[in-house]
Amino acid sequence: MEIVEKSKEKISVVLDIDESLANAIRRSVSEIPTLAIDNVTFIKNDSALYDEVIAHRLGLTPLKIDGNLEEIENCTCKGKKCSKCTVQLKMKIAGPCTVYSKDLKSKANVIYDDIPIVILSNGQELELIAEAKLGKGTEHVKFTPGIAFYRDVVDIDVKENCECLSVCPKYLLKEKGKFKNVYDCDSCDLCLEECKKEGRDCVEIKKTGKIIFFVESFGQLDAGEVFIRAVGALNQNLKEISKVK
Among 115, 153, 159, 166, which residue's CB has the most CB atoms within a 10 Å radius? Predict the structure, then answer.
């Protein structure tokens, strides 16, 4: 494995695996337990938006919490929503103002403070109590900690300078030469199609058999941690399957 880029927000690594395994890891991101608002009780809502719309926006607001939280299904409270498996958030605000995610008050941390929720005019109020729990993206996308995708690592052989090179949307094909392990090529084949139109054979693109895998975090976890937990979730699922006889 080769790390191409790494930060809290995103990571890209080169893996010597096939597309089926890469896709399995990608799908396993949805198996990572993630905190999100799942229930909202409105005490007062004078805004122009329906309760359901505001609840939807709150549900998509990324949250994280310091310490451990049990999944409701595994908690000793047996689904009664205790402090071990549920986090309460409150909001009480009066207009005129724009209500932002930072106006949620709780021991849970709102990752991005400046997410607009709703605009309140003079005299309008919004008061609510929300409950957040751990869930998985297989249940709802709001429980997904990030997005993962991949593409082939390719070798590019530019045999001659021609007009075909200028159509590359990423400007990778600038001059004649051989370029090994190109990570930024989307394999869109625009250059090859242009060569066909011109009746020329200026560019040759070959797959190396390697995959470059990208993870972009929504903030609940570092991107590297999302990747590690996705691999762990896939491994756990395979262990469960191996028990079937």
Answer: 153
